[in-house]
Amino acid sequence: MKTEKSRASVSQGRVRMKTRTFKMKMLNLLNKSEVDEAETLLDLEEAFYKFSRGGHHMRKEQLLRFMVEHQGENIRTIEDLDKIVGKFSQIESSSSSTKTSPTRLMDTYGQQGLSFNDFIDFLLFNDSNGPLEDEVHHDMNAPLSHYFIYTGHNSYLTGNQLTSQSSDEPIIEALKQGVRVIELDLWPSKSSKIDGIKVVHGRTLTAPVPVSKCLNSIKEYAFSKSDYPLAIQIFGEMLYFPRQTDQMTEFPSPESLKRRIIISTKPPKDLQSGSVSRPVPNGSEQSEEELRGKELSDSLATLKTEDMKNASDEDQEGTNTRDNKRNQLGAPLYKHLITIHGGKAKGSMKERLKDGTKVRRLSLSEKKLKSASENHGAELIRFTQKNILRVYPKGERVKSSNFRPYLGWLYGAQMVAFNMQGHGKSLRLMQGMFRANGGCGYVKKPEFLIRTSPHEEVFDPKRTMPVKKILKVKVYKGDGWSLDFSATHFDRFSPPDFYTKVCIVGVAADSVKLKTNVKRDTWYPVWDEEFEFPLRVPELALLRIEVKDKDKVKDDFAGQTCLPVSELRHGFRSVPLHDRKGKKHESVKLLMRFKFETTNKL
Fold first, then answer.
1. Which residue among 26, 212, 356, 396 is least enclosed by CB atoms within 10 Å?
2. How many degrees, rounded to 5, is the angle at CA 502 between CA 496 and CA 508?
3. How many CB atoms are closer than 10 A to CB 82?
4. Which residues cross the membrane (predicted)?
């Protein structure tokens, strides 16, 4: 509740602001975007005058109160605030209305406080005012099966699945983005240029890369983005050796495996059936190569390639029998290096999903996942409560495109494997999910995917559910395009016509697409529009934001981001936008507000 005094302060402040705006319009001292901003950002103006107690400037102690009470920031002292403002002042503002000088801002902040325009710039251009926490804050002491894990697919490929180059560069880029599962296909090499073992997409026309080059790059960049465990191949003292002499009954936690590299694969064949093991342990499951052979064969036929084997079941984890006699690693020793055991899936899907005494990993193609979710949804979720489910792209995706990852997450799949070089909307969803939890590559699954109810029931995504929360999203303004793009990038003869799409990706009942009005002929759009999203499963919902320039033929892309709804910070937030590939623009940002309301229908 506002006091009568605070109401009066806000009212007086509004009168002063409207009077100032009117006078400046008459004097032609404001351009169109500044007039729009002054006339429309009323709740920002209200917050400013509430905390400045109706004054023209917000002093230090008032700004501190605003940050704590309105924004919910965990800062306690003026010294903490000084550090935040100090970092902000080092960034040259690109605001359309003030062109704030860092030196002037610090002087103003230290003396009379922030003006309304300074206040807007502080909210919009302050990197500390982002929509998500930038630190790890989930419980990291649960078993690995309780987390979604950022997973790559054929991580060494630079392009398509059939003819592109193999390289360590995509691996490095993936590690820098926080990917925690790197897949390599290891094959014996007969080339004089590559001694020993090569990394290559088996039985395709892709060019190989020496395994040593990939492993050296992995060792160097494994923990450049995240300290949490990386699932890959052998690295001396970095390699985690499971203490158990046999397969585990529960996976270790990410916290216990910090800065460790673990192996996720199937045991050698001779440990499963008594036969001789294959020559090279395959970190990304050789079986996927053989079992996807049937899907790939049609595409490869046009390239007149040979030596493609068909397989009876695309997600069985078979083994390569070529050169079996060249056993380079003792199977018993190799078995003890494996932390996440893959297993050969036999029998019906129901049989494969049965919960055994020892934890394991099962791999399914996106096609098999869809079928399993339709016919064995409850069994899928029960399986992923203790075990790990990996989902990989179907073989027809020869251009390295990706499937929608949401179905995998909805049924608890921890490792939804993606072609990180295959840019598109699906990859943006993946990037959005793993911006959660400080971007460490591990996101704790919601409790309803981890625990069963007292009556042994599991979460059913198909049932009708009540609304849990209402997310209110307000889009105020955008800025930065004039710095990051040329004057003719969007329109040759006039400024762009921007609009913003705001979408929820979630369960069917939550998913919706909305958009703002188009703001014509301005690099500095002010929308001031609010949207409401009733959410039944907010824990798994993603907020997708995209800005476009309206055009007669085809609207031009102007930036995007995707954010996990459950991680959104309350209040006025600066939302940086990214390009199509997910690289953050240097200057382009939206000023938005996020607000949650609970319902009584719980």
1. 26
2. 145
3. 15
4. none
Q: What angle do CA 36, 39, 42 make, to 5 degrees?
A: 125
- Cα 95 from Cα 106, distance rounded (Å): 16
Pure H helices in 111-210: 116-125, 169-176
- Nearest partner of 159 among 151, 149, 169, 172, judged by Cα: 169
Given the structure tokens 């949401």, which residue do they identify?
A: 406
Q: Which two tokens stand for residue 506?
A: 């979630």
Whole-number pLDDT of residue 102: 57
Biggest CA pair distance of the chain: 90
Percent of the chain that is helix, strand, coil (3-state, to 5) = 30, 20, 45
Cβ within 8 Å of residue 579, ≥6 positions away: 559, 560, 585
289 token code pair: 């190569």
Q: Tokens 């209305």 label which residue?
A: 97
Q: Please, is 76 exposed, middle or buried when counting C-beta atoms within 10 Å of its C-beta (0-12, 13-18, 19+)?
A: exposed
CA separation for the pair 65, 62 (Å, rounded): 5
Q: Is the pLDDT of residue 502 over 60?
A: yes
Cβ-based neighbours of 576, under 8 Å, separated by 6 or more = 130, 561, 584, 585, 588, 589
- Reference 80, options 90, 70, 67, 69; nearest CA is 67
- Residue 331, C-beta contacts closer than 8 angstroms, at least 6 positions apart: 267, 268, 270, 271, 277
241-282 pLDDT, tens digit per residue, is 676 656 788 999 999 999 999 988 877 654 454 433 333 333
Residue 512, beta-bridge partner list: 504
**Vertex 222: Cα angle to 583 and 194 (nearest 5):** 100
Q: Give the CA dihedral 386, 387, 392, 394, nearest 10 degrees.
A: -100
How many other C-beta atoms are found inside a 10 Å radius of the C-beta of residue 62?
Answer: 18
Closest by alpha carbon to 168, among 214, 110, 108? 214
Residues 302-324, buried b or exposed e (16+ Cβ, 10 A)? eeebeebeebeebbbbbbbeeee
Q: What letter does residue 566 receive in the DSSP assignment?
A: G
Round to whole Å and give the CA distance between 141 and 256.
Answer: 7
Hey, what are 303's tokens?
């390239």
Q: Judge whether 201 counts as a catalytic residue.
A: yes
Q: What is the pLDDT of residue 525?
A: 97
Catalytic, out of 153, 376, 578, 585: 153
Q: CB within 8 A of 28, min separation 6: which ones?
A: none
Domains and CATH numbers, the chain: 4-129 (no CATH), 144-450 (3.20.20.190), 469-598 (2.60.40.150)
Residue 369, CA distances (Å) to 81, 265, 353, 380, 419 in order: 49, 19, 12, 9, 17
- Edge-to-edge strand ranges of the sheet holding 261-265: 230-231, 261-265, 338-341
The model carries a pTM of 0.84
